[in-house]
Amino acid sequence: MNKGIRLLVAEDDENLGQLLATFLRSKHYEVELAEDGKIALNKFRNGKYDFCIFDVMMPELDGFSLAKEVREIDKQIPILFLTAKDMKDDKLKGFELGADDYLTKPFIMDELIARIEAILRRAKVEGSSNDGEFMIGKLRYQPELRLLHTDSEVKKLTTKENQLLQLLVKNQNEVLDRQATLRAVWGDDNYFNGRSMDVYIAKLRKMLKDDERIEIMNVHGKGFKLIVK
To answer: What is the torsional sign of CA 5, 11, 16, 18?
Structure first.
C-alpha cells in the first residue's frame, strides 16, 4: 500500500539509521538514508520525496536547520522529528519550524509507522492536487507531463520551467525563497544562475497571462510569490 512513497531519513546513528531504513522498506516505503543533515539537504535538493524524518541532533547540519532549509524549498512536505531529548522547548521549536509530528527516542517502530500513516492521510486530504494535476486559476497544470493547459493552447514546459512552476505552485501564496530555489533548480545560487532564473520567471509570467488573476510577484530581497486573485 505504501509503494511509491519516498521517505528521506536523516539519522547520524549508523545502527539506528540502518534499522529504520530496513524496517520502513519492509513496510513497502522507498527510503533514502542520509547520515548527516548536510547530506540529507543535498539529497532533498536533487530528489523527489513525499515525507521527511529528521533526527534533531546531527553533525554538519542539525535537524532544525535542515528543516528550515527544506521548508524554504517546499512548505508542504511532511516532516517528523526524532530526538533523544524529551524537552518542551525543543518540541516548540520543531513545531514553529513546521514539524508535523515529534517522536522521542527510544520509540516503538509500530508507533513510527502509525504517525507516518496518520500524517500522510492528513496531507492527502489537505492536498490540492488531483491525480498529479493542479489548477492555477482557470489553467490546468500537469507537472509530471510538463503540460500547461490554457484557453488557446497546451504548452509543453522545459525541465527548468517545470521545476520552477512546481515550486511556485506548491508554495502558492507563500514567499518562495530566491536562494533556496536557485539551489534546488540550478544547483548553485551564483549571480549568473540568478539572471537565468529571472528570465525563466519572465517566461512563466507570459505563459500564465491567459488568466489575468494570476500573478508572480517579486518580493524584494526575498524571492517570489505566486498568487491567484
So the answer is: positive
